[in-house]
Amino acid sequence: MAENGKRPIRLGMVGGGTGAFIGYVHRVASRLDGDYQLVAGALSSRAEVAKESGKNLGLAEDRIYTDFAEMARAEAAREDGIEAVAIVTPNHMHFAPAKAFLEAGIHVICDKPLTSSIEDAHALKKVQPKNGAKFLLTHNYTGYPLIRQARALIESGALGKLRVVQVEYPQDWLAVEAGDDNKQAAWRTDPSKSGAGGAIGDIGTHAYNLARYVTGLKTSAVSADLDAFVPGRQLDDNVHIMLRFEGGAKGMLWASQVAVGCENGLQLRVYGEKAGIEWRQDNPNYMWFTEFGKPKQLLTRGGAIDGSAAGAMGVRIPAGHPEGYLEAFATLYTQFAAIIRGDGAEFEGLLPTLDDGVEGMEFIMAAVKSSKDDSRWTSLG
Known about the structure:
This protein is of the alpha/beta class. The chain has helices at 21-31, 47-56, 68-77, 95-103, 118-125, 145-156, 183-188, 191-194, 199-215, 307-313, 325-341, 354-372, and strands at 9-14, 36-42, 84-87, 107-110, 135-137, 162-170, 219-227, 238-245, 250-256, 267-272, 275-280, 286-291, 297-300, 378-379.
């Protein structure tokens, strides 16, 4: 049973077989609050890996699939079939499985970005889900409690009219040419699998989504400078983007996978007429809030916040006991489970949607176009 006493949702998975980082993360996140039970999977495009991975995860032999389309048909026909599926494949394999499962009436939990092309994103938006099947895009950083509190502060007007948004996500793991045995690097740097963007699609969309999620500002145009510093690399590994938001606020986004010494250094700074906030993912249980002319305030996860806000933020343990990446990821899974069961209305506006995924693809394409056109200001859409 789930921690709330309810029956776990029967979950399937496409991709995420043995050795896959993000598949493991999704499985941990789904289990944390007991809201899901993994019962079926098409865990690899290679039959032997799919079968071995399924056995390692304890799946029944007749529910280990080697083809996602077969899985969608078979599970939809079973009385005990899966109710939701997690898609954790490389980007070019998001669209077809998502479409198949939505049309089979199975809820979809999809890793970002939404697809590898803007055409597929728009096509997925037009799909008519059977039986009202729902869609969650796992921009997992939106699950951090203090990110939820930052959003609430801005919505309350505590910062005043927003002026400046600074967001960055630097890494260093692609600072040199990746070897042939590095599968994670191989598909991320291959346009046929990753799409038009490299670092911008892998981590730049996370940074962009975080800025949009917290501020609520709509982007009117971007001016981008995308580079591939590693010789021979076909896709960008470093991104500098200026953003113009509706209402006059300005933003800057930096995403890099060649910033030596940086370890998933996601951080967000937002400044308004009256106050500013600063948050870093490597210290996610703390956030600075500063009102003009007053001492800086250090806000803590699970600190002095009202009960309703705490519920929406997914705080699990008392302040001072650290929570982090996996808990934030699990918050998305748990709150989506409530929506699936029909008792999660309060979370409807908090979770990343298919629409957010389409906008993420529009952001990628606008940035790529701008960079090719000498950083000319380019509108989204």
